[in-house]
Design brief:
It is a single chain. With 248 residues, the chain is mainly β. Helix content is 8%, strand content 55%. It is globular. 28% of the residues are buried.
Length: 248
């Protein structure tokens, strides 16, 4: 009986060694990462026009660790996170925008094609190459806009802002007729900023619904009170015809 017990114990020990003795035989669990969709808000645009590209990501881990890299075979792509703005080149054609996402261990990529035509979408320029006053606690650029007609089904408010002589983050808000369409988004070259240059657009079709007058205001706060700290490279509304009178 004693020998049977010893034999049984020995066999059990051998089995446990086989099962647990070689850790390398067991697969190492990793997160799963997939780009389920990559879509442009407007897949057909005119030369020099812009569209927003957004990636939908399925990730089993903490999404805050994900890093996004955007590239384009022509034109300009600018963005961080799962959303970027694409500026079409000056020549018509079909161009590819690619995003690669990684958590530092695994990666995934996807490409979307954007058709660029010769005829640009109607656009109303609000402003170009204007420094912000940077003298008040809540600095602003305001525009009294008269819209004569809406020429497309989607009206976009586009902005391109550069942190120029300022050295601190600020928060950008945008209002149309005192109705907030963008609520205090961090911009600038410091954390938790987007970047030194911020290019984006907002769908304002639910605010600009018919011809008429609109007051469009860009607010920056708090900044560090440096004169000419921020530069509005360009602000415009696409999909409309009209005139703009800067109020700053």
């Amino acid at each position: 009986m004693r020998y049977k017990t010893i034999i049984c114990f020995t066999l059990c020990s051998l089995m446990l060694m086989v099962i647990f003795g070689c850790g390398e035989d067991f697969p190492i669990l990793t997160e799963t990462l997939e780009i389920s969709d990559l879509e442009a808000v407007q897949s057909s645009i005119g030369v020099g026009e812009t569209t927003t590209v957004e990636a939908s990501v399925d990730y089993s881990g903490d999404e805050t660790v994900l890093m996004y890299t955007w590239t384009a075979d022509a034109g300009i792509i600018s963005g961080t996170g799962n959303r970027a703005t694409y500026i079409a080149p000056g020549n018509p054609g079909t161009y590819s925008v690619n995003v690669t996402v990684t958590d530092g261990v695994i990666s995934a990529g996807k490409t979307v094609e954007i058709s660029v035509g010769q005829q640009a979408v109607e656009s109303l320029i609000l402003d170009r190459d204007t420094h912000w006053p940077a003298v008040d606690h809540k600095d602003k650029l305001a525009y009294n806009v008269k819209i004569n007609s809406i020429t497309s089904g989607r009206v976009l408010l586009y902005y391109d802002i550069t942190q120029d002589q300022d050295n601190f983050d600020a928060f950008l808000s945008i209002q149309i007729d005192q109705r907030t369409v963008l609520q205090e988004t961090a911009i600038g070259a410091e954390q938790p900023s987007t970047a030194k240059r911020t290019i984006d657009d907002i769908d304002v079709s639910n605010v600009i619904t018919s011809p008429g007058r609109y007051m469009i205001t860009f607010y920056i706060r708090p900044g560090d009170r440096v004169e000419n700290g921020w530069l509005m490279n360009e602000a415009k509304i696409t999909g409309v015809q009209g005139t703009s009178d800067p109020q700053q």
